[in-house]
Structure formats: C-alpha cells, structure tokens
Write a structure and sequence with these properties.
The chain is mainly α. It contains 17 helices and no strands. Helix 4 runs parallel beside helix 6. The longest helix is centred in the first third of the chain and has 69 residues. The chain is elongated and about 125 Å long.
Length: 353
C-alpha cells in the first residue's frame, strides 16, 4: 500500500501534466481559431474580388450591347438579332468588344446588313483590322464608301474586302489608302472601262511604283473627251493608244502621240508609264480574282495564343451580360434607399455626438 506522501506526489505530477496538456490544447485551439479567421478573411477578399470582376464584366458586356441600340436605333427582335451577331463575331475574331460592337452597328446602319451577311462581313473587318493594324471604325467607313461609289451589292462586301486585302499584300498599299484612291478616282476608271479588280490592281501597282496617280488619271480624263468626240469606245481607244506607243518605242514619235491623246502636260509621263509597263496588270488582276477567303486564310496562318485569348476573354465577358439587368434593378431600387438610410444614420450621429 502506497504511503500518503507517495499519493500526494503522484497527484501533483498528474495535475501538472494535465495543466501542460490543457495549455497545449488551448494553444492549438487558439491557433485553429486564428487560422479560421485568416481563412475567412482571405475568402472574403477573394469573394469580393470575384464579385467586383463579375460586375465589371457584366457592365462591359452591357455597354457593348447598349452601344448597338444607341448607334442603330433598333429595338425588340431586330436589336436582339444584332446583339446575337455581336456574340458570334466576338467569339471568332480578335478585337476589343467595344470596337466589334461599333462594327456591327455601323454595318447595319450604313449597309443595312443583318444576320449571316453581317456576321461574315464584320468578322472579315475585325480580322483585317487586327492583322493590318487599321482602326476597324475607319475600315468600315472606307469599305462602305467603296461599295457605295462602285455600286457593289452589300452581299459582296466581304469578298470586296478580301480582294482589297490581297491587293494590299501584293503591292504594299495600305487598306485605307487603297479605299481612298478607289473612291477618289473611281469615276474616270469606270469611264475608261476598268472593273473593280483592275482598278484595285492599278492603284496598288502605281502606289508601289511611285506613279503620279493624279497626273495619270487627269490625263485619262483628257483622253476620255477625245475618244468620245471620235466615237471610239473608251477602253478600246486606250488599248490602241498603248499598243501604238509601245510599237513606236522611246522617242519623239511616241511622245507626240501620247501628248495628242493625253494632253501636252502629261504626254511625256504617260509615254514613260506605258513603256515602263505601268498598265501591265494582267497577272495581278488574275491573282486578285482568286482572293475569296484571303483574310481568313491569312488569319489562320498567323494567329496564336494572343488572338485566342482575346476571343476567349470576349466570350467570357459576354457570358456575364445577363447579370446586367440585376445590377440595373439594384442601382435603381436598392442604392437610392441605401443612400437615404446612410443619410439618416449620419443625422443620428450628429445628434448623439
């Protein structure tokens, strides 16, 4: 039988051990609470960040959708169709959402496009804009002017842009510059019997080779008047004159013929242009006439991660667009009441303190 002293010592030892274990448990529990607190704070921060991002994306999507309504004046099913086109184009072509929205709206207002035609043309414009580093808004305006000036059907707008894109690739002329020249000099070119592909080839070739386009086309206007007086078909008269100058070769005779046909001021320049092959565009025209799908084919060969990310980002942002009406209701109903409540609390504090 243990003595009383031994029992006391054992009891004290066990009590001390219990205190140590209790202290350790208390520390662990405290640490657990601290960890839980930090985790909850981190979760709250993450949740707030996610919420902020969602709101930001919803507002960006809503802005893009609203821009179509503002720029076109459309509503109801017509507006819904244009907004659906925005979703499709944004998922296929790498451009800023606001810019794509503007392209959709402007093609609708300028050329009356809707549906598949609108989407195909808008996609081509956004692709070409991304690759050529041209503002898509400028490209839409330029294409619309070209189509209007040349009387091209809207259904052929995308093919027209393909042709101009290839002309740019072949000659180095920028798309916007080519569009400007085709509009500026379209009338005399058509009077001379040049088609659109031929005219695009001439403008690109002359720009590449440093030809004074204004001088040459001014001389063609003079020739138009002379051919008309002689009752000679415009294109036939030009072909005959070019053939005769080539046959005569460099010299006074060729220059005299050119001066008689194209005017004294431009005669020498036209002689040089003809003899140097500035009007020889057959191979280039043949290439341009096989340009359908040129923009998309080029895009497939040059696009990479950056472009894929842009289309993914646009699709992701537009997925939050249904959240916008909720935010509208919140801003229209909850925030005003919350503002009143905050004002009342402020007055209460003024009274108390």
């Amino acid at each position: 039988m243990a003595s009383p002293g031994t029992m006391i010592v054992n009891l004290v030892a066990r009590t001390e051990q219990f205190r140590k274990e209790l202290s350790a448990a208390e520390k662990k529990l405290t640490q657990t609470f601290e960890n839980a607190k930090e985790a909850s704070q981190a979760f709250a921060v993450a949740l707030a960040a996610v919420g902020t991002a969602a709101v930001t994306m919803a507002l960006a999507a809503d802005d893009a959708m609203d821009a179509i309504a503002v720029r076109t004046g459309q509503a109801g099913l017509a507006l819904a169709g244009l907004q659906d086109s925005l979703r499709l184009v944004a998922a296929r072509a790498p451009g800023e959402l606001g810019q794509i929205s503007a392209v959709i709206a402007d093609l609708n207002t300028r050329l009356g496009m809707t549906g598949t035609l609108l989407e195909r043309t808008a996609e081509n414009i956004v692709h070409a804009s991304a690759m050529m580093k041209v503002d898509p808004d400028i490209m839409v305006r330029g294409l619309a002017r070209v189509i209007g000036d040349w009387g091209i059907e809207a259904a052929n707008a995308s093919r027209t842009l393909d042709l101009m894109f290839k002309a740019s690739q072949k000659t180095g002329i920028s798309l916007d510059r080519l569009g400007q020249m085709l509009v500026q000099y379209g009338a005399p070119l058509r009077q001379m019997g040049f088609g659109f592909a031929e005219s695009a080839a001439l403008m690109g070739k002359w720009e590449k080779e440093g030809v004074n386009t204004e001088l040459v086309l001014g001389s063609l206007r003079i020739a138009i008047g002379k051919f008309a007086k002689a009752n000679i078909p415009m294109r036939e008269g030009l072909k005959q004159t070019i053939a005769q100058v080539k046959a005569l070769g460099p010299g006074a005779a060729a220059t005299a013929l050119a001066m008689e046909t194209f005017g004294a001021r431009a005669g020498a320049d036209m002689t040089a242009a003809i003899l140097e092959g500035r009007f020889e565009i057959e191979s280039l025209v043949n290439a341009l006439q096989k340009s359908d799908g040129q923009i998309k084919d080029t895009a497939k060969g040059v696009y990479g991660l950056a472009e894929s990310w842009i289309t993914f980002r646009n699709t992701f942002i537009l997925a939050f667009e249904p959240l916008a009406p909720v935010l509208d209701r919140f801003s229209g109903h909850v925030l005003p009441r919350l503002g009143v409540a905050v004002t009342q609390v402020g007055k209460l504090f003024e009274l108390v303190f």
